[in-house]
Structures are given as structure tokens and as C-alpha cells.
Amino acid sequence: MVDVLSQNEIDALLAALSSGEMDADELKKEETQRKIRSYDFKRALRFSKDHIRSLTRIHENFARYLTTYFSAQLRTFVQINVVQVEQLPYDEFIRSIPKMTILNIFEAEPLEGRMVMEVHPNIAYAMLDRLLGGVGTAPTKVNTLTEIETTIMERIFSRCFESLQEAWKTVLDIEPRLEALETNPQFMQIVSPNETIALISLSTKIGDTTGMINLCIPHVVLEPIMARLSVHQWFVSEKKTRDDQEIQAIRDNVTKAQLPIVAELGESRISVSEFLGLSVGDVISLNRTVETGLSIKVGNIPKFIGSPGVVKDRVAVQIDEIVNEGVEELDE
């Protein structure tokens, strides 16, 4: 990728060329020379910068949702932020985490494969202490989890995957679920050691306790949806989501609108003199016979044919036929 020069660097370069300190011909020769860059095959770059940016945006939302969730569960100050998103071999990730840590192994259909959410013991034990009635401090020595502690941690971390599901909605509807909880990284082998993974590091602070939450997502899991992680697809998905939400909001408001429904017995035309001469007991003949159904209008537009009746001592009308279905009669 070509480096972009700042305005100060451009001014300095032009000044050097004009003063003769630099030769333009020599610069051209350097450009034509073949540039060689070292490449480590053990650290294969499978994610482009575009993919890394998209993963960063997704998990920034995840960090916000996770902050709200843990704050409500622990009833204390919680702050979670994305520190970095990088790609590295799976073996390097395993060697970088503590020998005793909390490893939440999970799957997220329709993605195939397993992923890991690693929680530093300081953070995990601070959560546990807070849930058990403590002030939320981490122990000086990390011991093996008891069955009760394991159950509590499984419960709180399995529910936090709802936040991950919400964060991924703009890209893919996933259904993450906790498969297992491990404490020893050596017993966890979800992919081959040389497989490239995306490592999302979240700095976490609970009260005065700080630590890291790391999401390990293998490239083989994301490979089928890599095209959706491009910036173009990201903005298209966001626009589509906003459009769908607006359409749904309009539909909800329209369905709540109230319309007048009128069942007409019939019509009749009389002269003004006949109208002025009307009195109690007079009968007006209508243009419909008794056997003819009633015209039921919705917003002054005939939509149904019905029959008169009574339901629970109330005058009612039964719909027998639908007319002009799906046709807008706006000529009146």
C-alpha cells in the first residue's frame, strides 16, 4: 500500500528538490528498483485490512453491548473497549494466554467450527466474587474452579453471547451457544497450530480490577462469509437494515390507524317538499330488497357485502363476500 505524505512532508520534499539536496532522477531510479518484502509463511496473512476494519466495527458494538450486560449483572462499574484486532497463528495465541484461564468454547450457527472467548482470571474471578456477594476483587492466587463456581461462570458467559449475536446482526444472523468451559489451554485444540485466527482483544475494567477478554475466531470459520466483511458490503447491509427498520415502523403505524366502517341498508331519493313533509311513522322505500346484502364501506370505499343480525343484544353485520379486493378506488 502506498504511504500518504502529510503536507509538511510534501513541503520539505519540494524544498529539498528545489535546493538541490535531492535529485529527482535518483528518486525515479529508486522507484524503478525492485522492492522486496520479507514474508513469514508461519504467519500467513489471510485477513485483509478491509476485513480487520469490519471486525473492529462489529466488536466495538459487541463491547458496548457487553458493558451494558455486565454492568446490569454485576451491579457495578464495568468498562470494556476494543484494544486491537490482529491476525496470528493459533499456536501463538495459545502460548500468549495464561496457563490457568477461563476458556469459553462456543459455536455460532450457521458458521461451521468452534471459537473461543478467553477471559483473564482477574476478570473472571472478580465477576465471580461480585456475584457471590463480594466487592469484586480478584484473588492473589488462582485455584481450580469448583463445580458451583463453574456453573455460575457458565451461566453468566453463556448469556453474554446474546450480545455477540446482536453485534453480528448487520453482517449475519448467528446463534452462538456455549459448548464447554475449560481452564487449561493445553487441553483445547479447536484448529491446527498453524491456522490463522482473528484475535479481538477487549480491555476490561470491573471496579478497580483490570484484565483482558480475547475472542479467537479461526479464519476457516469466517472464510465462507469473507465477502460480507468488506466495507462496501458493510454499508450496503447497514443501509438495508435501516430501510427494513423504517419499512417496519411505517407498517406498524399504518396497522394502528383507525378506519370508519359503515354498513348501509340502502339509498333513496326524495324531493325537498317530501323531505319537509316527513313525520313520525312515515316509511321511506330504499333501493335494495330484503334479500340483497348490505354494502359495507371502509373509509367510504365499498369493500364487503354482508347480512344484518344480532350478537349479544347488539346490532351486527356478518361479512358474506369481499368485493374490490386489492383495488384502490380513489376516483370519488
UniProtKB/TrEMBL annotation:
<protein>
    <recommendedName>
        <fullName>Flagellar motor switch protein FliM</fullName>
    </recommendedName>
</protein>
<keyword id="KW-0975">Bacterial flagellum</keyword>
<feature type="domain" description="Flagellar motor switch protein FliN-like C-terminal">
    <location>
        <begin position="254"/>
        <end position="323"/>
    </location>
</feature>
<dbReference type="GO" id="GO:0003774">
    <property type="term" value="F:cytoskeletal motor activity"/>
</dbReference>
<dbReference type="Pfam" id="PF02154">
    <property type="entry name" value="FliM"/>
</dbReference>
<keyword id="KW-0283">Flagellar rotation</keyword>
<dbReference type="GO" id="GO:0009425">
    <property type="term" value="C:bacterial-type flagellum basal body"/>
</dbReference>
<keyword id="KW-0472">Membrane</keyword>
<dbReference type="Pfam" id="PF01052">
    <property type="entry name" value="FliMN_C"/>
</dbReference>
<keyword id="KW-0145">Chemotaxis</keyword>
<comment type="similarity">
    <text>Belongs to the FliM family.</text>
</comment>
<keyword id="KW-0282">Flagellum</keyword>
<dbReference type="GO" id="GO:0071978">
    <property type="term" value="P:bacterial-type flagellum-dependent swarming motility"/>
</dbReference>
<keyword id="KW-0969">Cilium</keyword>
<dbReference type="InterPro" id="IPR001543">
    <property type="entry name" value="FliN-like_C"/>
</dbReference>
<dbReference type="InterPro" id="IPR001689">
    <property type="entry name" value="Flag_FliM"/>
</dbReference>
<dbReference type="InterPro" id="IPR036429">
    <property type="entry name" value="SpoA-like_sf"/>
</dbReference>
<keyword id="KW-0966">Cell projection</keyword>
<dbReference type="GO" id="GO:0050918">
    <property type="term" value="P:positive chemotaxis"/>
</dbReference>
<keyword id="KW-1003">Cell membrane</keyword>
<dbReference type="InterPro" id="IPR028976">
    <property type="entry name" value="CheC-like_sf"/>
</dbReference>
<dbReference type="GO" id="GO:0005886">
    <property type="term" value="C:plasma membrane"/>
</dbReference>
